Structure formats: C-alpha cells, structure tokens
Automatic annotation (TrEMBL):
<feature type="region of interest" description="Disordered">
    <location>
        <begin position="1576"/>
        <end position="1601"/>
    </location>
</feature>
<protein>
    <submittedName>
        <fullName>Two component regulator propeller family protein</fullName>
    </submittedName>
</protein>
<keyword id="KW-0175">Coiled coil</keyword>
<dbReference type="GO" id="GO:0016020">
    <property type="term" value="C:membrane"/>
</dbReference>
<dbReference type="InterPro" id="IPR013783">
    <property type="entry name" value="Ig-like_fold"/>
</dbReference>
<feature type="compositionally biased region" description="Polar residues">
    <location>
        <begin position="1653"/>
        <end position="1685"/>
    </location>
</feature>
<feature type="signal peptide">
    <location>
        <begin position="1"/>
        <end position="18"/>
    </location>
</feature>
<feature type="region of interest" description="Disordered">
    <location>
        <begin position="1645"/>
        <end position="1685"/>
    </location>
</feature>
<dbReference type="InterPro" id="IPR015919">
    <property type="entry name" value="Cadherin-like_sf"/>
</dbReference>
<keyword id="KW-0732">Signal</keyword>
<feature type="compositionally biased region" description="Polar residues">
    <location>
        <begin position="1576"/>
        <end position="1594"/>
    </location>
</feature>
<feature type="coiled-coil region">
    <location>
        <begin position="1221"/>
        <end position="1264"/>
    </location>
</feature>
<dbReference type="InterPro" id="IPR011044">
    <property type="entry name" value="Quino_amine_DH_bsu"/>
</dbReference>
<dbReference type="GO" id="GO:0005509">
    <property type="term" value="F:calcium ion binding"/>
</dbReference>
Length: 1685
C-alpha cells in the first residue's frame, strides 16, 4: 500500500511529462557573467531590477544603498546612485528613464532624472502608504501602489509634478506580493499569495480617474500567486508559487467572459523540473517571443524553461547562482540576462552553445542492437533511403535485403534473399537511379551483367518481381562496384578483370557502350571503380595490384595512363565537397587521401594507418568525418578529416571480437548501421543528453577580488600543457534530477577513471583540468591531440516513462503503475528512481511482469523489450572533446629574433650537441642564465628562466670550427626541456640554427698599431740605456668580436724567426698586465730589436710587431762619462758614486712635506704606514671580487684593470702633470684609447661627444692648444677653470647606480656595504701567489674583519675609488677639490695639499688584537670644503656638511672617502722613484735603508752649493739612524713607522726627518718643530671655544672619530694660519713670499669674481675639462668592467 501511495504521489507531482528529445536552441546564456556589481554595505541588498528600454539604462534597487543606475553601453558603469534614508525594494521608472517613482518616508515620491546627472524631487503624494509595490502602466499615465493590507491605490501621473488620486480597489485584506499590468493596459493582476491571483479590468475615465472591476481569479487552493507574467498576445499567464512551482493559465477564459466574473483553474496546475529539489521560485520574466520563461530560484540560480508548448514546459537550462532569486530581467535586445541575488547584480551574456556534437557519439554501446537474420558471413554493403526509411543491404551470397528502419531499435525485414533465378552472382553492389525509383541488381548467368527493376516492384512482389530489362554482356563474373558520371547517363562497373561502361540514358534501353580489359601483367580483379572530375578519367582498384587510371576521353580507345602499386587496393571513393580530392581505401595502408587536381598524376595528400584491413568508408557531417570499417582487427574507426592534410582518429567502436565490413548512416546521423560477419548493428550516435560546455582558462589569482582570474576560451581551441582550465557543463533539456554518475577518461579504446590531473566538481558541474604532457602524443608534438572525457549520466524514471504506445503492447494506467512498481521492487531502479549504473540486459533476457504479462508471447516480448529500452536509455554516455598541445615550442625564425622558445613553464633548458672534435662552443656569461660546457666543448647547456634563456641565445652562441670541418657540414642535436612538456629533440645543420654563429677570427685594431702605441710613450720608439722603461700595450690592440678577451704573448726576432721572449733577454713581458719592461744595458746602445706580439682568444690568433731603438743616454750616464773624460779631478769627487746626491737635489720638491708641530710637555706621535704589501693584496682582492660578481651576473665583457679605470677618471690631471701631450689631437686620442679599451657603448660615446661639441663651440684656437693645461696664473684663470667644471657638471647626469656592482655593494644612501663585501671576499676565497706558497683570503679573515687593519682600509678606499669612477658628478667634484687644493697650496707643499681640507691626528691606540693602528684619524673641514664648493654650486642655506651635496646629485659618502684616500695615499699609482703618497709610503719595510734626523746648518762658503745639492742640513747624531733627539723615539711595527716622544722646554728646535731608500734616494722629508704651548698662539688653536668650531664634521668612516678643530677664521686670516703652523723664515725658501702676498691680497677677489661668473657661465670661454666624460655609465658597460691587476 505504501508503495502504491508513493506511486500516486509521484503521479500527482508529475503530470504527463513527455521528455522526448528536443533539439537545443541556437543560443544559451553563459554560466559566466560578463559583469558583476557586488554590494558594498551590509543592508545594501540588490533586490529589484527595472530596465528603461528606450534609454537602455538599468535601474537596480539595492536596499539602503539606494537605486544604482547602470549603463550597459558603457561596460555597465554605474552612472549614478539615488540615495534615500529608506530601504528600497520596489520602484518604477519610465521607459525613457526621465522619472523614477519610489517610496520615501512611506509616501510616493517622483524624482526627475532628465539631466542624467542630478536627481530632482518634483512631487510627493500626501497619503502615507506602507510596504508598497509600485507598478506603472505602459502608457505611463497611471501608477498603482499595491499595499501590504491588500489595498490598491491608483494615482494619475500624467503630470509628474502634480499626481492626483485616480482610484482604488480591494480584493482580499492580505498582502499583495506583486502585480502586473497587461500589455494593453486593460488588466491589473494582483498576486495575493495563497488567496490566488486576482484580475481587475481597468477602465479609464475622462476626468483622469480609473474604474477597477474584478473580472476573475485563478484561485490559490492548488497554486498560490507570488509573481506573474503575461504573454504579449494576452493569451496565457505564467504564475509562480514560491512553495509549489509554476502554473500556466489560459487568460482568454477571463478576457472573453463578456464582463462576467470568472473563477478558473490553471491549465498547468503545478510544474517543477525536479521531484527532489523543492520549488522556490521568487522572480520571473518572459522572452519577447513568449516561448521562454526565466525564473530566479532560491539558492539554485536561474531556470530557463521552454514554454513553447504551454501544456508541456521543459527545463532548457540552469545557471547555478547562490543566494536569493530576487529579480530577473532581460536586456533590451535580450543579449544579456540580468539577475539580482541580494549579494550582487550580474549580467550573463547570450552566446552560441558549444554542444560537442561535431563528432558521432560512439560511447552508448549498451544501446546498440544487433539484428542477425541471415546465415551469410558477409553483410557486405548497405545504402539508406532516408525519405522512406529503408535500408538496402548487399549481403553477398545471401542476396539483397530491404529493411524497415523507422525505429532503428526495432528493425523489420521487408525483403530478404532477393536474387535472380539462374544467377550465380553475389550481391555485393546495387545501383539506384532516379532517387531510388529504379534499382540495378548484379547478374551472372552467362549472358547478362545487370537486371533493371522498379524498386516498388521488388518491395511489392519480392522474389517474384519482374525486371524491366536485362543488360546483355556475356561474362563469367558479376558487378562488385560501380559509379555514375556527373550527367547520370554513363555507368562504369567493375566486372572481374574488366571495366564495363554502360549507357543508362533511357530507362529500359541500357546497353554496354565500351569495355576495357586488364592489360597483361595486371593481377587480381577490379574491386573498385569511380569517375573523376570532368569524366575524362576513371580510376580503378585491384586488390593485389594497385590503383590504375584510365583515360576515357575516347571510349573507343581507352588507355591506362597511370599506375600506383599497392597490395591492399580495396576500394576508392570520390569527394562530395571537392572534385580534386579522392580517397583510396587500402586494406593494408588504411585510408589514403589523394589529390586529383593534376590527373593523370596522383599526389598523396595524407594517410592514416589503421589496425586490420580497411574495407569501406562512410562520410559524415559534410565530409568532415569519415567512418572506416575494418576487418580482422577492430570494427569501425571515426576519423576527423576536416583538415585533410592532418587527419586523426577520434574514437572507435568495437563489440566483442566482431569486425566491420561496411557502414551507413541516417541523414541526421542519429544512427549508424554497421555491417559485419554477424549481422547488422544499429548504434545510436547522438546522445539523448545534450550539454553546453564553456571553457575558462585560469590566468592567475587576484588578491583584490580574492578569486582566480579567468579568460574565456573556445571549446575548439588547443590548450597548452601547463595551463589550468575549467570546463563548465550545462545540461540542456534535461530534468533537474539528472545525476552525473561518473566522469571517465577515454584512452586506448577504453573508458578509465579520471587521472589525477583531472577532477570533477559535482556541485558546480565543472571539470577542472591541469593539462599535463601525458595528454598529448609524444610521437607527434607538432599536432594537437584529441582528449575525450565521457560523462555517464542517470536519468530518474517515473510512472509516465512507462506509458507504451506500441501497437503490439498497448498498456493502460493501471498496467503502467504495475510495471513501475515491479521495476522498483526488483531493484532495477533505486529509491531515487535511478537505474543501476552497471545494468546489463542481454537480448535474450526477458522481463516477465506479473499481472501485466499475458499468454500472448509477442505481447510479453514487446513489454519486455520496451522496459529494457526504457531502463537502458536512462543511462547515457556523453563525450566532451578537448584538444591539448605541447606548450614547448621552438621557433626557428621568431619575428623579433628573441622568442626562439615558448612555453608555459617558467624555466627551460637548451642543450646543443655536435660531434666531438668538430668544433667548440664558446660560452659567455649572462645574468639569469646558467651556462655549462663539457670538457670537449661540443656540448653546451643553457638553463634559466624562459626570458633569460631566450635573451641569452638571441645574443647568438658562438661556435669555433676545428680543422677538418666546415661550418655548413656540422650536424647539431638540439634538445629543449622545461620539466612539464615532453622534451623537444631536433636535428639541424649548425648553420640552420639562427641563434648560433661561426666564430670570427681575432683581428688587429687598425687604430692602435703596436708601433704607434710604443712611439706615443717613447718618442720615435727610442729608449735610454741604463734606464728602466715600461710600456703597457692596449688591451684592445687585437680584437676578438665574439670572445672579447685576448691574451698576449711576446716574441723577439732572432735570426730569421721570432722566438719566445723569456727571462734571458733584458726586455721582459708581463702577461698579466700586458706590459713590457726592462733596463737596456750599456751594450744595447745604438741597437734595435723587433718584437712580435701574438694575441689569441683561445681559439684563433693574430700578430703585430714593433721596433725598439736604444740610442739615448741618461743624465747620470753622461755625468759618468764626464768623470771619465775630465780625469782624476772629477773622478776624485766620486760623482757617480754619489749619484743619489743628484737625484735628491733634482727631485727634492717631489718628496718634501710641510712642517709638523710638536708641543712641549705633550705627547707627540707621528706614523708613516708602509702599505705596499697590503695595497697589493687589496688590489687582488677587489679584482677577484669584481671578476667573480661579473661572472656570477653573467657578464661576458672583457676584464679591465682597476688602475686603468681610475686612470680614466684622472687622465686630464696626468696629462697636465706629465706635460708630454703636444696638442689637442694627442689628448683626444688618449681619451679615445681609454674609451675603446673599456668598450664603451654608443650611447656613452654619444653623450661624451655631445659634451665635447658643446665645449668646442666656446674655444678659440689658442685655448684648443692649451685644452688640458690649467693656467699657471692662479687668480686670473681659476674662474675659467671653475666655469669649465660648471659646464661639465651641467652636462653630466646624476648617477643612477644601475650597474650590478653598485646595486650589490652600495646601499640606498650610497655607502659601501663593507660587511657584504667581506663576506663575498671570503666566499670567493681568492688565492694569492706568494713565494713558495699560496695564501687564501680565508687566512686574512682577521685582517678583513678588523676595521683598523691596513688591508681593510686599503680595500675600502680602493673600492671607493672604483665606485667614484662610475659616478661622474661625484668624481668631478673630487677632482675640482683636488685641483683647487693644488693650485692654492701656498701654505702646504704639493705633496700634502689635502691638509687644507682635512685634519690628521695620530695616536698610539691599539686595535682589538693588540696591534698598533697604522692609520691617523681624518676629519673633514666642512667650512673649508664649503668655501670651495660654493664657487660651483649655489646653496640656499649655509653649507653644513657634505650631506648638503645630496640634493645636487653628489654622493657625499664617496666624496668623503676619496678625500680620505687622497690624504692617506691609498691610490693605484706606482713609482719606484717616488713612493710617497699622502701619509703613506708604498714600500715594504725592507725597501727602506734608514730614517734619519738632521739639523739646519746655515752659512759657510759653500752654503749655496750645499743648498743646491740638498745638503744644507747636517746629521743630528754621529751616525745615521743611530741618534735622534733624546725625547724622540723611532720604532717599526707591522707595516708602520712610528716617531713618538714628549719634548721638554729644552728640546725646542727644528728637526729634519728624512726617509732613505736602499740607493740613498730621499723618499720623504719634513721638519718637526718643537715649540712651547703658547708660542705662535698654538694654545688658541688647541683651546678654541665651541662657538668658534664652525661646522666641523665629527664623523669619519664608520666608527672612527676625530678631535680636529679648525675654524674658517684660519682661512680668513692666512697670516695667523701661517704662524700657527710655524711657517718661519727657515721655511720661506719653500714658499715664495710673493705668492703669499698674492694669496692674501687676491683670495677675496677670487671669491667675488667667481660669484659674478656664476650668473652667466655660458659666456665664459674657457678650456675644457673632459677628464671624466668617457667614464662608462650604462649598466651594459659596467658589466664589462672588471679588474685585471
């Protein structure tokens, strides 16, 4: 009884639902919105949509957020928002969008929106109305307010500024949920919930009022009313009950009642597309054609229902959207569907559906039926007459069969085993004429070849049918194939070894017109025949022989004109879409697609090889598909031939071990009939479950919206490996209760569970796929591979599904209930009415149903078959076809010559391999790409990001060809891998790979011959004997365009050959610095040698020579000759023995330093650091560091010495000091050499050239000659020099620190990150070559981490020199201070000019290891520096310290470090004669002979000569280096000489200190002045009040401090300054008195004139200062800079 109630309830809930297959529409609405507007306030719920159709604007009520106005024509931009204090739910708007009607504070308010920018309240009703629904008639004259108490209040709004009362009504005193005005404005519909739908007739009165007459109702006892819509023809109303579903009523029952009140019921009482999901519709609208209903459903989204048949609604589509179904509307043109669900407003676009129906569905194998009536083994061929639903089967030895296929699942035999009497012919081919009106049947009776019948004759009389004609042709074989020409008047037939042409012009008078016999040597029989375009040729096939072409232009003289050998030539067919295409069905080779455009020549277009013996083809879908039947293996294969050049297998169908002989299909391709050795298989090929599929590719995640970002794709696109896609599935015309049982993956002719790279989301009906390489064909990476995903769905079954109308087994309602009950009770379907997904029912199995089955077996069989069919049809397999393709693509000729490799992956590797010993790849480093070479260099591997690898190879890889090979003959294997795709393995000739080039040879730089270089340094290539010389050749003397770095080797000419220049010659060559050096011996005088230099880049070489002439005598040698010539007198003087006297007298100013003060009773300390070894180590450390950083960054530039780089920054200063540059051209040439040596790019050359041209316009001929020489007249020319620097500064850009070195080691303030520097030094672990041992950087760890150590100081300050050379502006400022200091060093010697700007203080402090600190403390005198820089810059405020320069683009930190480096003497200069730099000596302790003290010894007869010979001082003690003043001590400790002591009052005197080298040369001299504390106002200087300590920089380097105190007053009063520093008469010889006076008198004049010139710099015609203009600036250049000490 319970089961019966369940059945009755099911019947009640599901009235007759004939779910016959309905073809999908030409449109769907996308499940993915085009636009979304999310709520911004908690109570800002989107609840009502109104479309102003004339204005094409969308108005959206959003609760407390007001009414938002959206413009679809502007990408749904929110045009305006109308805000009130109310929660807005209902409103109305005119179609032109000029007026809005809404409730404000409970009263109707009319808003003017004509301006489209502002809202203007024009009127307001006087009556308070609560919870109203507002509707406006179509004429926009009457507004209806539907109230919560059931009252209707109507207002005349013809005058928007003065609405008036028009009428009222009351049906029931319950809430009115919604309402509707009919399209003709004559009917008012009130939705009052369970009371039903009330209908009023509206009558319009002349006075502007209306009358509302209750005309009828659809009562709510069966269906309540919450919203309603009406068709435009006023015939039907569609009502929704949010608890029951949809009802459809016939409105004409009321509209045609002639004014009588009518209560009626709905035609469709309750309809809902699900028996499981509860009804919950809340909003609705209709399409303009009244055929589709759109419903907003709670938590389920949008239901689109086909109501074309108002008695049979069908769910067409569901768009899943969460939350409420508040409002649904269509856009003006219905191109978008608008939906408000409370949380958001969404716009869904209308699109063309992707139905996945491009292929036949071969997966519903369980629905196939096999019909086997004959005993024959060959169900050979078939043809279908679609107009009559007839199947014609040529069943070989069992004759002709004709079948009724009206129901392909229940085929009926009409004619069987039809053959002619006395004929032995097998029926393998039948011919139809006149659209199946006539049929030609093969005959083999010794006289005839074909019999002509009327088709109806055979259908009527069957075996007794009489032929119209017998076609005479005596033979012993029969027709196996045939074809008609285009004119349908000539038939060609294949008869044994003959090709027979029959004239079929006149019915009943057919005759054989011509016959062509196989030629001698042709094997087998003719198995296929066809005409070709123009009927000029006939093509035949012969199994075991091949394909042949006959020229039939003259039927009396038929000629074989072409032959194609094949042992499998089975048959052939022509194309119906192109006359130039044909198909050869080749048993062994599959199907061959051929080109007939150049007959009789045949060209093969493509071929697809299939298992088994290819026997027959059937074309499908306008010849885009081909069904191939195969024997021996398989059954049928479906081939995509839409691209005839690239056919591919889609899927196949097999059943047990059966094969396929032929196939034929219905015209709509809904069924395919397969003939095989068992029978005829009827297979449905269009599934009953239609799906629309949308594809979205995930392109990233957005943190803004906290969701993935998608891009819409087409289902026909090819999706790349590595991408992630979502396949959104929408079922069309399916019940809502349809269940997806499983999703399967079709692979290798079987359905398997989904692999792990595919998941299915059943809630969203979504396949989520991450495309992997296993989804593509590794053997054919050039083509996309079809992947098939199959959805297995189960449709629930209900009682109405078992209504049988078959005449053999008609059932009544009671029998239908019994059948359904039996099916459920016996487990065929479960409690949810779903069939067992693994259900299998054999043909023989019969379902016997008690109380239904009868004694009539036919009835029982019919019922059983019908039930089985219903059960099996509820299971459907629906495929989704997607194409996947490799994302790893190699483009041999990319358009931009960059993107050679494309992939979705982030990284890639490229491996290129050539035969060993054929050549070598030359690797170059590049940032971001890792390069590795094997030992033989025939295998190069490049790895990195795709961008970096492409960048690397686009710069061209260089290949060097070894002897015995040519570049064009070498083969290369190219292997590309990205870890997500299958590797690309390609083979090319090396010359075909565009990103590889053959290495260019090393060439001579014609601008810099060796001879011209040598002559530039040594005039006419001449040297002095007994005088050391050195000459470094330019690094770019030889050029290697592809390798860059060239190594040089020197040879000397001996006899007829050049031999290696080794240590046995007086001239030597240092390969590290490319420097020649040596001491020409006396015997080399008047001799000449030829030197050859060979430059090689490791692969090829080049050479050049230069001549050296030794024909000059040094001064000392001349003196020695004088001694020898003038005899004993000169010899007695021992002049040569005391040659140091001449050196010391000639160069006495080169080693002289200004005085040092020692105050009595105060500790005196003076240190002279000896930094030769530490400086050398620091050079190597920095060189190695920069080289490794560049190498690490992928730099491929050539190395360049740090010394060379600094020389670039100081080249002008050197040119002035040396004085050996003769003219402007020489100077420019030297600068060009430096530029070329650094390989500065064209951009920097251009910048330098622009600066130079700007300056050249200011110069006259005289100034051009003096271009790099600063004037000797200080005060007259200092203004010009300043202006030159100003011009230079104006032309130089601020350093952007865009080099890798700067970015790594300079912080944002421009300071050197020494911590990182030291860490990297230790990481790179530089090894230093020492005599008999190696020492690694890790062994210097203590020194490197000791900020007070000599090594640390040298590294830091040398790095500062390196970085400032990269900073043009800062370098220029440092040079200006240096030049200014040297030109104004009247109070100092040129050797310690820096003392104007810094204070040097010594102490005896120890470092953390207990060692004496070698370095003095250095502090900037900011006032003095500021007084100099104010000539270059205008400072808005007082110059405080160097940090003030930051705003000028100057790096104050580097500037300070360079001043400290100048003061300490840490530089890359190197001179054995003048090793004193700053406060340091560039010597080792063993290079000093002594440190001696002297007293001034004036007077005497030879004082002038003694003064000339620098002998005006006598030794302080009896022996050198053994006696100092008693208070002064000398000590040497770890790289520093220390003079210290505390003098007393009795020690007041002047002491000369000299440092002697091993040869007696004075390397440094200075005077220590011992004086009292108060003498010369020293005390004043020591105790300067703080208010006089103007702007003293107390910060040194990092943690260093200073106690120096110098005020600007000392420079304002030079006399006082001179006294303070004890510039007494004893020292006046060092500083000419007239210079003192000139300095005192003109210092203020210089300042004023400089300021005046600041205002008009451009007018000053001054010499150029170009010393920095060619320093490399761009990042690409700096990657080329490295150190090569």
């Amino acid at each position: 009884m319970t089961s019966l109630l369940i059945i009755l309830f099911s019947i009640f809930m599901n009235i007759v639902r004939m779910q016959s297959r309905t073809v999908a529409q030409s449109w769907v609405y996308s499940s993915e919105y085009d636009f979304i507007l999310s709520k911004t306030e908690k109570q800002g719920l989107y609840n009502r949509i109104q479309v102003a159709k004339k204005a094409n604007l969308v108005f959206i009520a959003s609760g407390i957020s007001g009414i938002k106005i959206v413009n679809p024509q502007k990408n749904y931009a929110v045009q305006n928002v109308l805000r009130t204090n109310d929660f807005i739910e209902s409103f109305a708007v005119t179609q032109d969008a000029n007026y809005i009607f809404l409730s404000i504070n409970g009263t109707l308010t009319i808003i003017d929106y004509t301006s489209r920018s502002n809202f203007q309240k024009v009127s307001q009703d006087s009556v308070l109305v609560q919870n109203m629904e507002i509707i406006l008639n179509n004429a926009e004259t009457v507004l209806f307010l539907l109230q919560s108490d059931g009252k209707v209040r109507a207002l005349n709004v013809s005058n928007k500024s003065n609405p008036t009362f028009a009428g009222s009504a009351l049906w029931h005193q319950t809430q009115i949920f919604n309402g509707l005005i009919s399209y003709d404005d004559k009917w008012l519909f009130l939705c009052q919930g369970q009371k039903g739908l009330g209908i009023y007739q509206i009558k319009y009165n002349k006075d502007g009022t209306i009358s509302l007459d209750l005309a009828g109702a659809f009562l709510g006892n069966q269906s309540g009313s919450y919203a309603v819509e009406m068709t435009t023809d006023l015939k039907y109303i569609v009502n929704i009950d949010n608890q029951r579903g949809v009802s459809i009523g016939d409105f004409t029952l009321i509209s045609n009642s002639n004014g009588y009140y009518v209560e009626t019921n709905y035609t469709i009482q309750i309809w809902w597309p699900s028996n499981i999901t509860l009804p919950a519709p809340y909003s609705l609208c209709l399409s303009s054609d009244n055929n589709f209903l759109f419903m907003g459903v709670l938590a389920q989204g949008i239901f689109i229902v086909d109501i074309t048949d108002k008695s049979n609604p069908q769910l067409y589509q569901q768009i899943v959207v969460p939350y409420q179904g508040e409002s649904v509307k269509l856009s003006v043109d219905e191109s978008h569907l608008y939906y408000a669900n409370g949380q958001s407003f969404l716009a869904f676009p209308k699109i063309t559906p992707n139905l996945n129906n491009q292929y036949l569905n071969l997966f519903n194998k369980h629905l196939a039926h096999t019909f086997s009536w004959s005993d024959t083994y060959h169900y050979w061929r078939c043809q279908i007459d679609d107009s009559n639903n007839l199947y014609y089967g040529s069943f070989d030895d069992d004759g002709l069969w004709i079948l009724d296929i009206n129901n392909p699942q229940d085929i009926k035999v009409l004619v069987q085993r039809f053959t002619l009497p006395n004929s032995t012919a097998n029926i393998d081919n039948i011919i139809f004429l006149n659209d199946y009106q006539y049929i030609l049947v093969p005959v083999c009776d010794g006289e005839n070849v074909l019999a002509v019948y009327e088709t109806k004759e055979i259908l009527t009389n069957k075996l007794q049918a009489k032929p119209l004609q017998m076609i005479f042709y005596p033979n012993d074989y029969y027709v196996v194939d045939s074809d008609l020409n285009e004119q349908l008047n000539l038939l060609v037939t294949a008869v044994g070894s003959s090709v027979v042409f029959i004239d079929v012009t006149t019915i009943g008078k057919f005759f054989v017109k011509s016959v062509w016999q196989f030629e001698q040597g042709m094997k087998g029989t003719c198995t296929g025949i066809m005409f070709t375009n123009g009927n000029q040729y006939v093509i035949g096939s012969s199994r075991g022989y091949g394909y042949f072409i006959l020229d039939i232009s003259d039927l009396r003289n038929i000629k074989k004109v072409y032959y194609l050998n094949s042992f499998g030539a089975e048959n052939l067919d022509s194309s119906s879409v192109s006359n130039d295409i044909g198909y050869f069905i080749d048993g062994l080779q599959g199907v061959i697609i051929v080109d007939f455009s150049k007959l009789p020549q045949i060209n093969i277009i493509s071929q697809i090889q299939l298992p088994g013996w290819s026997n027959d083809i059937t074309f499908v879908n306008d010849e885009k598909l081909m069904i191939v039947s195969t024997l021996e293996k398989g059954m049928i294969y479906m081939i995509d031939i839409s691209d005839i050049q690239n056919p591919f297998l889609v899927s196949q169908y097999t059943y047990l071990n059966q094969n396929g002989m032929s196939s034929c299909a219905l015209k709509d391709f809904s069924y395919l009939f397969i003939n095989n050795n068992i029978g005829v298989i009827s297979l449905p090929t269009i599934g009953k479950v239609q799906m629309h599929v949308e594809v979205q590719e995930i392109i990233g995640f957005s943190s803004t919206i906290n969701d993935y970002v998608y891009r819409k794709r087409q289902i026909t696109d090819s999706f790349l490996v590595g991408t992630s896609i979502n396949i959104d599935i929408q079922f069309l015309y399916q019940p809502l209760d349809l269940v997806v049982d499983s999703v399967l993956y079709y692979k290798e002719n079987s359905l398997t569970p989904l692999p792990d790279w595919i998941t299915y989301d059943p809630d969203q009906f979504c396949l989520k796929i991450h495309v992997v390489k296993e989804s593509i064909d590794q053997s054919n990476l050039d083509s996309s591979l079809l992947n098939v995903f199959v959805l297995k769905t189960l449709k629930p079954l209900y009682v109405q599904d078992f209504y049988f109308k078959n005449q053999n087994c008609l059932t009544d309602n009671y029998q239908n209930w019994l059948i359904f009950y039996f099916i459920r009770q016996n487990g065929y379907i479960d409690d949810q009415n779903l069939v067992n997904p693994n259900l299998k029912l054999s043909i023989q199995e019969e379902i016997f149903i008690p109380n239904v089955s009868q004694d009539d077996q036919n009835f029982n069989t019919c019922i059983s078959d019908q039930v089985k069919q219903i059960l099996l049809n509820s299971i459907q397999y629906s495929p989704i076809y997607l194409f996947f393709k490799t994302s790893l693509i190699y483009n041999q000729n990319p358009p931009n010559k960059i993107a050679y490799i494309q992939t979705v992956a982030t990284s890639v590797s490229v491996n290129i391999i050539v035969q060993k010993l054929s050549g070598k790849f030359i690797a170059k480093n590049q940032t971001g790409a890792n390069i590795s070479l094997n030992e033989e260099q025939n295998n190069i591997l490049i790895t990195g990001t795709v961008e970096n690898v492409n960048k690397y190879i686009s710069g061209q890889i260089v290949f060097f060809v070894l002897e015995g090979y040519t570049y064009n003959s070498i083969q290369a294997d190219l292997l590309i891998s990205d870890q997500i795709n299958y590797d690309l393995s390609l083979n090319f000739q090396l010359s075909e790979i565009n990103f590889i080039k053959e290495k260019s040879p090393v060439i001579k730089n014609e601008q810099y011959s060796l001879q011209s270089q040598f002559n530039h340094f040594y005039s006419d290539g001449s040297l002095q004997i007994l005088t050391e010389f050195s000459f470094s050749i330019f690094q770019n003397t030889f050029l290697s365009p592809d390798v860059g770095q060239v190594t040089y080797t020197a040879y000397i000419h001996q006899g007829d050959e050049f031999v290696l220049l080794d240590s046995s010659y007086w001239i030597q060559f240092d390969t590290q610095g490319n420097k020649f050096y040596g001491l020409p011996p006396q015997k080399a005088f008047r001799s000449s040698i030829k030197i050859q230099v060979v430059g090689t880049d490791g692969y090829s070489s080049c050479s050049d020579t230069f001549d050296i002439t030794v024909d000059q005598l040094p001064l000392l040698f001349v003196l020695r000759l004088i001694v020898q010539i003038v005899g004993p007198l000169i010899g007695a003087l021992g002049m040569y023995k005391y040659r140091e006297i001449f050196y010391n007298s000639i160069f006495k100013t080169k080693n002289r330093y200004s005085n040092v003060n020692a105050l009595i009773k105060q500790k005196f300390v003076l240190k002279v650091p000896l930094i030769s070894q530490d400086l050398k180590k620091a050079k190597h450390v920095i060189a190695d560091l920069i080289q490794n950083v560049n190498k690490e960054q992928g730099s491929n530039a050539k190395k360049i010495g740090l010394r060379r780089l600094v020389k670039l920054a100081t080249v002008l200063k050197q040119s002035q000091e040396q004085g050996n540059i003769k003219n402007l051209q020489d100077v420019q040439q030297e600068i060009d050499e430096v530029i070329d040596d650094l390989q500065v790019d064209q951009k920097i050359r251009k910048e330098s050239k622009n600066i130079q041209n700007a300056q050249n316009n200011k110069q006259n001929a005289q100034q051009s000659i003096r271009r790099y020489q600063f004037p000797n007249n200080l005060n007259a020319d200092m203004i010009d020099i300043t202006n030159q620097f100003k011009d230079k500064l104006a032309a130089i850009k601020t350093n952007t620190r865009n080099t890798k070195i700067e970015q790594k080691y300079l912080n944002k303030e421009g300071r050197i990150n020494m911590k990182l520097v030291i860490e990297d030094i230790l990481i790179y672990n530089k090894k230093y070559q020492k005599p008999d041992k190696k020492k690694e950087s890790k062994l210097f760890r203590e020194e490197l981490y000791n900020k007070k150590s000599n090594l640390y100081k040298c590294i830091k300050l040398l790095l500062a020199r390196y970085f400032i050379a990269l900073d043009l502006k800062t370098n220029l400022i440092a040079e200006y201070i240096r030049e200014y200091g040297k030109k104004n060093c009247f109070l100092y010697t040129p050797n310690d000019w820096y003392k104007q700007f810094v204070k040097i203080v010594y102490d005896e402090n120890l470092d953390i290891h207990g060692n004496v600190i070698s370095w003095p403390k250095i502090q900037m005198n900011n006032n003095r520096i500021g007084s100099v820089l104010k000539h270059l810059f205008h400072f808005n405020t007082k110059f405080i310290n160097l940090n003030s320069l930051t705003s000028k683009g100057i790096n104050p930190y580097l500037l300070k470090q360079i001043l400290i480096a100048d003061a300490l003497g840490i530089d890359l200069k190197k001179s054995s004669l003048f090793p004193s730099y700053g406060e340091c000596l560039h010597l080792k302790p063993g290079d000093l002979r002594s440190v001696e003290s002297f007293k001034f010894a004036p007077g005497g007869c030879c004082f002038s000569l003694k003064s000339l010979l620098n002998k005006e001082y006598d030794p302080y003690g009896p022996k050198e280096n053994l006696y100092f003043p008693s208070w002064l001590n000398l000590s040497i400790q770890r790289g520093v000489i220390i003079l210290s002591g505390t003098p007393q009052k009795l020690d007041i005197e002047e002491i000369l200190i000299r440092f002697y080298g091993l040869q007696g040369y004075i390397y440094r001299s200075f005077i220590i002045r011992v004086q009292s504390l108060g003498s010369n106002k020293s005390k004043n200087r020591s105790n300067t009040p703080k208010n006089q300590e103007n702007n003293i920089d107390t910060s040194l380097e990092d943690d260093e401090d200073s106690i120096m105190q110098i005020s600007e007053d000392q420079y304002k009063n030079p006399k006082k300054f001179a006294d303070d520093y004890n510039m007494n008469s004893c020292q006046s010889s060092h500083f000419e008195q007239e210079k003192k006076i000139k300095f005192l008198n003109e210092s203020s004049k210089f300042s004023k004139e400089s300021q005046a010139h600041n205002e008009n710099i451009s007018q000053a015609e001054t010499p150029q200062i170009n010393q920095l203009q060619n320093t490399p600036r761009e990042q690409s250049d700096l990657q080329q800079i490295s150190l090569n000490i």
